[in-house]
Amino acid sequence: MKNKKTTISDIAKALNLSPSAVSKALNHHPRISKKTIEAVEQKAAELRYEPNHLAAALRKGKSYLIGIIVPAIDINFFASVVKGIETVINQEGYNAIITQSDDLSEKEVRNVDALLNTQVDGLICSLAYDTKNYEHLNKIIEKGVPLVLFDRTPNRADISTVVIDDYQGAVSATQHLIEEGCRNILHLAGPRDILPYRLRSEGYQDVLKKHGIQVRPEWILESGLSQQDGIRCIKEVIDRYPEIDAVFAASDHAALGAMRELAERERRVPEDVAVVGFSNEGFGPFVEPSLSTVDQHGSQMGEWAARLLLEQCHAKGKKITPEKIVLPADLIVRSSSSRKRDTTNK
């Protein structure tokens, strides 16, 4: 049987005081004598009393907790976003409750309900791959709980969002491959109904058109962009289309899978097939050859999301106009795509 948790009433009974007097003593109320405060604190320590900070905060109308929902915490990009969020909210006295959806909309909805039931002061979220219905987001808004979305966001003007310039990132990556002499560029795309991946695909296609290169639908392969997806996609096309001389992947994990399968088939990277990924995962500089990529600035994205959320938390009923922050997407050129120059592992 578990030991019963000590309460303020237990301390009051032991000292023959009222629970109200004990509560005031624990909070160093000016009307409580120093002697009484010392006695209460000593008895609280003896009885191993642990104050319920959440209950106290809720009585004041704030929990000082921020809920965070990410698709997967073991992906470096999302981990860096969480780090950026915590850096900002901790400075303001808030703590984070971090959940992951495992890229399942059903779990994402459950996470929203659980966090709302925990009385979080606000929510920061990146949507799962298969999220098509936004009723759970509407519920957050209807309850008046501050909300900010990042990276994977719906095209809505009533929610503050933080994204990078996915289109320009894809433009830079594809332009770079063309400048390196590539003309037959395979695109490992994400699900088209998810806005960032749609923008990356559009950027890729627009650069090809600009250079008079035919856009071949059979060279745009949609997937979940895991490492296994990258391997599978290369297996599907590389023998049928041996002329492919470059791969632009909408994630570093898919790019890494592509590089591994190309190596299995003795296709040299970048000499035979140049490769560029997207998101600047931590493994990029350390694989061989080092992976060229587009930096998503995860920590900076998290910091911006936290600032937008805290602005809503501090508004005290004042209406806040939703904002959209678009961060630059910077191309990092490494060995996997460099045919014309030497690069270092940046």
Structural notes for this entry:
The chain has 346 residues and is an alpha/beta fold. It folds into three domains: 8-51, no CATH class; 61-163 and 297-327, Response regulator (Rossmann fold), CATH 3.40.50.2300; 166-296 and 331-337, Rossmann fold, CATH 3.40.50.2300. It is built from twelve helices and twelve strands. It has helices spanning 8-15, 19-26, 34-46, 53-59, 76-91, 105-117, 135-142, 166-179, 195-210, 227-237, 252-264, 298-313, and strands spanning 65-70, 95-100, 122-125, 147-150, 160-164, 185-189, 220-222, 246-249, 274-276, 293-295, 324-327, 330-332. The mean pLDDT is 91.
Keywords:
346 residues; alpha/beta; Rossmann fold; four-stranded parallel sheet; 14% strand; elongated
In short:
This protein has 346 residues and is α/β, with parallel strands linked by helices. The protein has helices spanning 8-15, 19-26, 34-46, 53-59, 76-91, 105-117, 135-142, 166-179, 195-210, 227-237, 252-264, 298-313, and strands at 65-70, 95-100, 122-125, 147-150, 160-164, 185-189, 220-222, 246-249, 274-276, 293-295, 324-327, 330-332. The longest helix has 16 residues, at 76-91.
